[in-house]
Specification:
The structure holds 2 protein chains of 2 kinds. Chain A is mainly alpha-helical. Chain A has a single domain, classed as ABC transporter involved in vitamin B12 uptake, BtuC (Orthogonal Bundle). Chain A has 14 helices and 2 strands; from the N terminus they run αααααααββααααααα. The relative contact order of chain A is 0.18. By secondary structure, chain B is mostly helical. In chain B, strands 1-2 form a two-stranded antiparallel sheet. The longest helix of chain B has 31 residues. Chain B is globular. The chains are: A mainly alpha, B mainly alpha. Chains A and B meet through helix 7, helix 12 and helix 14 of A and helix 4, helix 9, helix 10 and helix 12 of B. Chain B: Keywords: Cell membrane, Membrane, Transmembrane, Transmembrane helix. Chain B: It is a multi-pass membrane protein. Chain B: InterPro entries: ABC_transp_permease. Chain B: It is found in: Cell membrane. Chain B: This is ABC transporter permease.
Chain lengths: 453, 304
């Protein structure tokens, strides 16, 4: 490799284009499973007396048919993308954050508090609102990191439980007059919501292209996605992050401060979810008020976006567009007699369609390798000698490493952490031996591919 | 209404709110002891609630509906088991997707179809129900409540006294060692999930054909997560888990009853209390290492 330094970019490009062993199979299988997912959705519509073609048309009209429809779709894309990028960061580090739904709300709460309480002129207020949401939700997610660091509390569980705390916190804030509940002049009951944030704390659209409105939030989200993609793929910090995700014990032996790094990743993911909450508050997607239901399940959906994008922030951009389009189209479905809940079904099936094929094919390949006569299945799999002592912990589940863009990182010392495609032996001639009883358990050396998410 | 009547009302509504939690908690307890932190318990309960009403409406029998609901729970568990413990997709990913899928599917189906309501019959023991305060709570309930009295000792026996339970706990504590001694780790986990699905399904079905008599959109409303909180609050012991369920059920009953009694109390705090208690329990128990060592860690041979 050393002599190829002159043409590093070309090499990288080639490597990126090469899908690696099994890559084409994964691609084909994904296309097939997407077909199955869409087919099942169409079947569901047909069985319940709707028309699949009419529904598809409605979805298209609500989301993509006109510039106005695109504007609506793109309004959803921005917060979805921010949540997804944050989820990518935390999932890469193995500190799997599933509390985005709550972090979105906390971000909105912090933003609303600043926006309604600080009398700051001009666009400075908007900046402060966004900053407050980032800081607030970052701290909220950071609490989970602290609980892990000092008491060993499982991060998934604590982020999940804190989602429900966040929901009640918002509910309390908008039901309590001295906190954020709306102040109405005259009589009438007060609704559980805050006052709308002032005009100068709102994100407006950047220029008018006949009817198409590009909200400032979208630009912000895309910039964040690109920056974080670069940071994760090109910096030492990003490499360490991946190392921690793939094998925390190896990373610790290599001198990485696992707890601190994971905590930062968790806080970043929370902060980005909080920023998404601020977008929901300040962009014309809702009513510009803090409301208990204002998160619109963006937190859960953003997590699904990250799963489909295999924890790659750049891939998350088109996936977020897809999810935004489905969301915007869903509101048009009702007119055709098909409930908009259909969109939720389609989304969940699509996620399965994207997530399953690489894992299944990786499993089948491992099984074939284990069946080869030249590779006795009973060989104990000692880790490479230089890496580390045998480690007691299995790697955290969420480390996906199907991103070929990252193979350029210098992974000399940790063969275990190397991504798929570079260590895996080429599958040999097929064996006719029957498969092992439980394919998931087939012993082999490249089980560390980490294709878990 | 005297004070005693009020207490009796709260207790008996607390008992009714506890029952679905307790069913599902028995299942989730088994799953977690096997090392699989199953978050699709929400999907199991919701799917079962829908399935029980759909089948009860079709057959006209609430009992058949209850059984069908339990089977829906098992079906969700089967899918979860295959995806996360055979194909080895991250179990949280599977759980999230299943929760989203079942929520979307049941919401969709309940919007496009109409079902007639059905309810299983109520046990009403003539003399005993007149015992002050605890009478209505213990002796006027739908019959699946009394099934719970069989499920709890059975679960305890399965986990703590049977060979299968011993292997199950080994799988949850140290899958590598269990594997070496000839136990099929992922198979045990799938079996634990099936048991979880059966009981969570019973809990969800009880909610629909037992308690309410109908199904509405997102009927379980996060009860599955409450069950997970209960198991954590119970520090992975069956008895304490069930105490957690009772506490959560009573908190819910008080939230519903207090406004009618003219007592103002912070309802948000009451709703949040279970999650707060579970978090505090985790913080407190962290040093005592109560949780199964391999909780939420996937097992693949050769990847220590």
């Amino acid at each position: 490799m050393a002599t190829l330094g002159i043409d590093g970019t070309g090499q990288r490009l080639l490597r990126r284009l090469n899908p690696g062993p099994g890559g084409w199979q994964v691609g084909l299988a994904t296309v097939a499973t997407i077909g199955v997912a869409l087919g099942l959705s169409a079947l569901l519509i047909a069985v319940t007396g709707g028309s699949p073609t009419a529904s598809t048309k409605a979805l298209y009209q609500g989301s993509m048919a006109s510039p106005a429809a695109w504007s609506t779709s793109l309004l959803y894309v921005a917060p979805l993308l921010l949540v997804a990028v944050g989820a990518c960061v935390s999932a890469r580090s193995g500190f799997f954050n599933i509390g985005q739904e709550g972090q979105v709300l906390i971000g909105a709460l912090a933003g609303a508090w600043v926006g309604l309480r600080l009398a700051v002129p001009g666009p400075l207020l908007l900046v402060l609102v966004l900053l407050a949401s980032v800081v607030g939700a970052g701290i909220w997610a950071g609490l989970s990191a602290l609980m892990y660091r000092f008491r060993g509390v499982n991060v998934v569980v604590s982020t999940m439980l804190m989602t429900f705390l966040a929901q009640q916190l918002i509910s309390f804030a908008v039901n309590t007059p001295w906190l954020l509940q709306e102040s109405r002049l005259g009589r009438g009951t007060l609704s559980p919501q805050s006052n709308p944030v002032p005009e100068n704390a709102r994100l407006t659209s950047l220029g008018e292209y006949p009817n198409l409105q590009l909200n400032g939030g979208l630009v912000l989200a895309v910039v964040v996605a690109v920056v974080l993609a670069l940071v994760m793929a090109r910096t030492r910090w990003g490499f360490r992050l991946k190392m921690v995700g793939l094998n925390p014990a190896t990373a610790r032996h290599a001198g990485v401060r696992v707890g601190a790094l994971g905590g930062i990743a968790l806080a970043i993911s929370g902060a980005l979810a909080g920023l998404a909450g601020a977008l929901l508050l300040t962009s014309p997607v809702g009513t510009n008020r803090l409301q208990p239901g204002m998160s619109l399940n963006i937190g859960w959906d953003g997590l699904l976006v990250a799963l489909v994008a295999r924890n790659n922030p750049l891939l998350a951009i088109p996936v977020a567009v897809l999810f935004g389009v489905l969301r915007a189209g869903g509101s048009f479905l009702a007119a055709t007699g098909v409930p908009s809940f259909l969109v939720d079904v389609v989304k969940a099936l699509l996620v399965l369609a994207f997530v399953a094929p690489p894992v299944v094919i990786g499993m089948l390949r491992r099984r074939r390798l284990a069946d080869q006569p030249s590779t006795p299945t009973s060989t104990p799999t000692a880790p490479p000698a230089a890496t580390a002592a045998p480690t007691p912990t299995a790697p955290p589940a969420a480390a996906a490493s199907t991103d070929p863009a990252d193979t350029s990182a210098p992974v000399a010392g940790s063969a275990q952490a190397e991504p798929a495609g570079s260590t895996a032996p080429v599958p040999g001639p097929r064996s006719t031996a029957p498969p092992p009883a439980d394919p998931g358990d087939a012993g082999n050396k490249d089980a560390m591919e980490g294709r878990l998410a | 209404m005297s004070a005693a009547d009020n207490i009796a009302t709260i207790l008996s509504s607390g008992a009714r709110l506890t029952v679905p939690l307790a069913f599902a908690a028995c299942g989730e307890y088994v799953a977690q002891r096997a090392g699989t932190l199953n978050i699709s318990v929400e999907a199991m309960m919701l799917g079962a609630a829908f399935g029980s009403i759909a089948v009860a409406s079709a057959t006209g029998s609430a009992t058949i509906g209850l059984v069908a609901g339990a089977l829906v729970g098992v079906a969700v568990a089967f899918v979860h088991g295959i995806l996360s413990h055979r194909v080895q997709i991250n179990t949280f990913v599977v759980g999230l997707v299943l929760n989203a899928l079942v929520l979307g599917l049941t919401s969709y189906l309940i919007t496009v179809s109409t079902f007639t309501g059905h309810q299983v019959w109520q046990v009403d023991i003539p003399v005993l129900r007149d015992i002050p305060i605890v009478g209505p709570m213990l002796f006027v309930q739908r019959w699946p409540v009394y099934l719970l009295l069989a499920v709890i000792p059975l679960t305890w026996w399965l986990v703590e006294r049977s060979r299968w339970g011993l292997e199950l706990r080994a799988v949850g504590e140290n899958p590598q060692a269990a594997d070496v001694s000839g136990i099929e780790v992922n198979k045990r986990r799938r079996q634990a999930l099936l048991w979880c699905g059966l009981l969570a399904g019973l809990g969800g079905a009880y909610l629909a054909v037992g308690e309410v008599g109908s199904f509405n959109q997102n009927m379980t409303a996060g009860r599955g997560y409450l069950v997970i909180a209960a198991v954590i609050f119970g520090a992975w012991r069956l008895g304490r888990t069930l105490i957690g369920c009772v506490v959560f059920g009573l908190a819910d009953a008080m939230r519903l009853a207090l406004p009618a009694l003219g007592v103002t109390m912070n309802s948000q705090l009451l709703i949040a209390a279970p999650y707060l208690l579970a978090l505090l329990a985790m913080l407190v128990f962290a040093t005592t290492h109560r949780e199964p060592r391999a909780l939420a860690q996937p097992f693949q041979r050769g990847t220590t």
